[in-house]
Amino acid sequence: MQDLGEYDYIIAGAGSAGCVLANRLSADPKTRVLLLERGGRDNWIWFHIPVGYLFAIGNPRADWMFTTQAEDGLNGRTLAYPRGKVLGGSSAINAMLYLRGQAADYDGWRQLGLPGWGWDDVLPFFLKHEDHIDGTSAFHSVGGEWRVEHPRMRWQILDEIREAAAGVGIPKVDDFNTGTNEGSTYFQVNQKTGRRWSAARGFLKPVLSRPNLRVETDVHVHRLTLEAGRATGIVFERDRAEFMARASGEIVLASGAVGSPLILEASGIGDPEQLAGHGINVVHALPGVGENLQDHLQIRPVYQVEGIQTLNGMYANLFRRAMMGIEYALRRTGPLTMAPSQLGAFARTSDAFETPNVEFHFQPLSLDKWGDGLHPFDAFTASVCNLRPTSRGSIHLGRTEDGRPTPLIAPRYLSTDADRQVAVDSLRLVRRIVAQPALARYRPQEHLPGPAVESDADLLKAAGDLGTTIFHPVGTAKMGTADDAMAVVDERLRVRGIDGLRVVDASVMPRIVSANTNSPTIMIAEKGAAMILEDAH
Question: Does the predicted TM-score (pTM) go above 0.90?
C-alpha cells in the first residue's frame, strides 16, 4: 500500500459539495487538503454545452449507470439512476436549474431540533456564493462562484402553457427563490453566456493552482481507517494499486446520497445486520446509514399539439438542426442552450397543503425516456413531481457478480397512501391545465397516459408506468438529534459516535426540499465548510 502522506482535510467526492469544500478548506495556504474523485476530468464537450445532458445521461463516460431494484410502486419496473461520473459530479450532467426550495423546508429542519438550519440561517449561505445576473437584491447577490442566469431562448408553447396554468389559479411570478415558490415562471439556470456552469467550473477550477490542494481523479475509495473511535485516514484504489492517506484534522464524506453511505458501511459504520451480510465487522453501530432515502418521482404526461413549434419538429428537420448548431456557435443562444425544462410551476393539488406540494417541469419536447429519440410529432411534456413524498427507501452496499461493490438502490416510490393520492391528483391537475382556453387552438391530444385512463386506479397504474426519478436522491445519512435512533450526523454534520468524520452532501437532508436539490446541496457544503473551520479554531 502506497502512502500519500498526511493532510489536514481529506474530502471523498468532488461533486457539487466536494468542489465547494475543496475551495473553502484550502483557502488558507497553510492548510493541506486532499480531494478524491472516483470519476474523471470534465474534458468532454458535452459537459459544457447545456444540451449535453441528452448525451451524458445514460453514457458510461459521464454516468455511473446505476439502476434501482424492481419497484412495486412502479409496477415492477427498474429505473436508471443517473449520477455524474466526473469532477463536478451530477452538476456536470444535471438540469442546471437554480432552485432553493421553500422557507418552510428549512424551518421544518430547525423544528426537528436542528438549530442553525432555518431559512433565515441558511439564506446567507446561499447568498455567499451566488453571482446572479440581475444583481444584488434582498434575495440575490453577485460576485460569488455560483453563476445564475435566465434562459437564453423562449418558446411560444411554454408561454401559452403559463397562461393555461393561470387559468386554474397558478399565478405568474418572477422568481422561485424568495422563500415561497408558488406560481409559474421560467427557471433560472446555472449557466454563463450559454455554457453550463458546473460546481467544478465555479468552485474547483479557479483554485486548482493552489499548492496546498491536491486533487486525485479515477480513484475508488475502499474504506476509512479508524483508531480509538476516530477517523484517521482513507484507503483507496487506482489502476489496481492501493493507496492510503492520513488526516490530522478531519475526513469529510461528500460522495452524495448514493456514495457516502456505502463508504460508511464499507468502513464498519452502519446497521449491524447490513454489515453482517457482507462479513464486515461492526466498528460503530448506526442503523440509519443508508436509510431515509427520498427522491422526487416525476410523472411525465405527453400532449401532442398542432400549429405551434416544439423541439420535436425542429430537430426532425436537418436544415433546422444545422441552424441550431450555427446559432449556438455564433451567439450562444438557441436550443443548444436549453435546460431539460424551461418553464416551471409550483402548485397545490388540494387545499390540505399550506404550500405547494407539486412541481411542474414543462418541456417543449417529448420522448419515451431520456436517451431515446424525440417523438415524430410536435408535443410537450407536463412533467410533475410530488415535492414532499412520504415514501422512504434505502441505499445499501451490494456486490456485483465479480465481487465489486455496487449500490443496492430501493427508493420504494408510491409506497404510501399519501403519495399515491398525490400522484392521482397531479395527473388530474395536468388535465385541468391543458383543458384551459389558452391551449385550445393547438388541439392538445393526450398521448400519455391517454384519455381512456380515467379512474383513480387506472391513473395510479399510469403513474407507476410513467414515473421515473428526477435525479434528486437525498437523506441516506440524515441529520438528527441525539434521541433520534436513525440519525447519522448531528446538526454540525459530525458522524455520531466517530470523531474527525463528517458527511457534507445531500445525504444529510432529514427531509427533502421542495425543489431541485443541487443548489441546496451547495448551500449545505458552504455551511458545512464554515462549521469545519469554526470547529478547528
Answer: yes
